[in-house]
């Protein structure tokens, strides 16, 4: 490993590379972009990474935080992968993540970082049978969630400025109705059975919350 690092230092310094089996060097005109998930300063202190190589490649450095520290970027990346794999696997019927799944994505620790997210969402799109990707499709266990958010179904704080009990009820009612319509694919009778009420009540709730059942049909 040390020998390889020394060779890289030589290439970066002289900007000349010699092909395997060749006798003459070839001049290079390149820019090097390097990435690592290893603590290079610590590795230098332990003698596992050459200082001269480190200072030649770290002319300009950027620290990219892990997914769990990226805030709203997590949801944006998840939807990017969802759209990409919907097109790749021709799963146009999968339109989004369920609200519960989005909360899980935001609270999950993502120990495998971007590659784990990519692979989990790829799998979820392939096996999804509904319009919305569910936590079961992602196959994430509760033990992998942030310690401060152990419940994958954790919602935004109920006690927040401008929100009262009536508003919280309205929000929960609309969310339940929306998820029921998504699961029932717009079938009002099935929605009524799912939420335990009558068809006339469902019609009243549709009008109250401004929902369009046709938007949930395939």
What descriptive keywords fit this protein?
two-stranded parallel ribbon, single chain, mainly alpha, 50% helix, 218 residues, two-stranded antiparallel ribbon, 3 domains, Helicase, Ruva Protein, domain 3, 4 strands, elongated
Q: What's the tally of helices?
A: 10
Q: What are the segments in which pLDDT stays under 50 over at least 5 consecutive residues? A: 147-156
Q: Percentage of helical residues?
A: 40-55%
- The class by helix and strand makeup works out as mainly alpha
| Order of helix and strand elements from N to C terminus | HEEHHHEHHEHHHH
Strand order of the biggest β-sheet: 1-2
Name of the CATH architecture of the largest domain: Orthogonal Bundle
The main β sheet shows up as:
2 strands, antiparallel
Radius of gyration: 26 Å
**Global shape:** elongated
Span between termini: 56 Å
Q: Mean pLDDT score, rounded?
A: 81
What would CATH call the class of the largest domain?
A: Mainly Alpha
Number of domains: 3
By CATH, the topology of the largest domain is: Helicase, Ruva Protein, domain 3
Percentage of residues in DSSP E strands: under 5%
Beta-strand segment tally: 4
Map the helices and strands.
Blueprint: H1 2-14, E1 16-18, E2 25-27, H2 40-45, H3 51-57, H4 73-88, E3 96-97, H5 99-107, H6 113-127, E4 132-133, H7 135-138, H8 165-184, H9 188-195, H10 199-209
Parallel strand pairs: 3-4
Antiparallel strand pairs: 1-2
Helix pairs in contact: 1-3, 4-6, 8-9, 9-10
């Amino acid at each position: 490993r040390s020998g390889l690092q020394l060779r890289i230092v030589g290439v970066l310094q002289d900007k000349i590379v010699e092909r395997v089996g060749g006798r003459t060097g070839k001049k290079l005109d390149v820019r090097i972009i390097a990435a690592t998930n290893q603590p290079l300063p610590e590795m230098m202190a332990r003698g596992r990474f050459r200082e001269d190589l480190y200072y030649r490649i770290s002319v300009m450095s950027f620290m990219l935080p892990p997914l769990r520290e990226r805030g709203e970027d997590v949801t944006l990346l998840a939807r990017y992968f969802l759209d990409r794999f919907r097109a790749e696997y021709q799963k146009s019927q999968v339109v989004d993540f369920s609200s519960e799944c989005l909360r899980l994505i935001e609270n999950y620790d993502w120990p495998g970082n971007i590659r784990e997210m990519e692979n989990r969402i790829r799998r979820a799109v392939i096996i999804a049978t509904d319009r919305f990707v569910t936590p079961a499709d992602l196959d994430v266990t509760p033990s992998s969630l942030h310690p401060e958010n152990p419940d994958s179904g954790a919602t935004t704080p109920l006690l927040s400025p401008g929100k009262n009990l009536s508003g919280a009820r309205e929000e929960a009612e609309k969310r339940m109705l929306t998820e029921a319509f998504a699961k029932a694919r717009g079938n009002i009778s099935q929605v009524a059975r799912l939420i335990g009420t009558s068809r006339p009540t469902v019609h009243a709730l549709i009008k109250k919350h401004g929902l369009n059942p046709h938007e949930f049909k395939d």
